Amino acid sequence: MLRTDWTLAEVHALYHQPVLQLVAQASEVHARHQATGEVQVCTLLSVKTGGCPEDCAYCPQAARYHTGVQAHKLLPDAEVIAAAQRAKEAGSTRFCMGAAWREVRDNRDFDRVLNMVTQVNDLGLEVCATLGMVNDYQAERLKEAGLYAYNHNLDTSEEHYGEIITTRTYDDRLNTLENVRKAGLSVCSGGIIGLGETDEDRVKMLHTLATLPAHPESVPVNALVPVEGTPLAEQPRVSVWEMLRMIATARILMPNTMVRLSAGRQEMPVTEQALCFLAGANSIFSGEKLLTTPNPDFDADQQMFALLGLTPRKSFKNHVPEGATVLAKTAVEA
User: Fold this and answer.
1) I need a labelling partner for 212 at 20 to 30 A (CA). Which of 1, 43, 149, 191 fits?
2) Binding residues for [4Fe-4S] cluster, per the UniProt record (predicted)?
3) What proportions of the chain, in percent to the nearest 5, are helix, strand and coil?
């Protein structure tokens, strides 16, 4: 039974189990709700890079930080579609386009993004976008253009959020998720660990995600990739044990959700990634970059899939349409 009524104490107890016990429990939940050994391969492309007015302390695209990232305007449509085609040929079934905007504005650039969405959708890929905050009208336009999913991460707990970002509020993020859900789009929302937060901040972020009116269809678990020039440049690398706790707890709380092993994978050997799959991760981003930070390329991931006996998940499998909220409420009432 899906639950959206988890208490903070329940999430705390799950997260703080002995790690091997937690992974074993998550693996059992995963086997009951997902096809084990099936992993979705996603590709993320920065279609507009740098120059962002936000002050996210981890982000090399913030205009106020000197990180060496070269800002560029929106990529030509043909370049984006060609990248999507290459990603499909390499095995990706979801293609995500990211723009370093604070929020979507109703202008020619947004119209161009809508056209890109339509063309990538025509390739048979799940199309995802992360463009900053969106209102309900903009979310509806994205849906009409063929967008499948919208990514808008919470990043961290509400309590720690002000230490990381001051240029938008936690409620702003939750409002965008609500607009995305109302438009009938698949919700992709997770967070980043390694931002100087405590274990309790991680527990609270997971609790927030798991008690939304409907679980996000996708929850990315990111490990901070420190970038020189950002305020968090000196943060230590997150350990595999911390990633396992996040992934396993997310899997138990949200059994039907895609749990994405996202940023930070470049530093993880195959042995560590295998543990994450055992704990319930069933999606990765593949390709040389995640927006602006390094990421394993397609060839390395194909070798890993062959070694671990993993198979790629098809596009649009178990599609969850507009009724997700109703289904979640029904499950809780049952």
Assistant:
1) 43
2) 52, 56, 59
3) 40, 15, 40
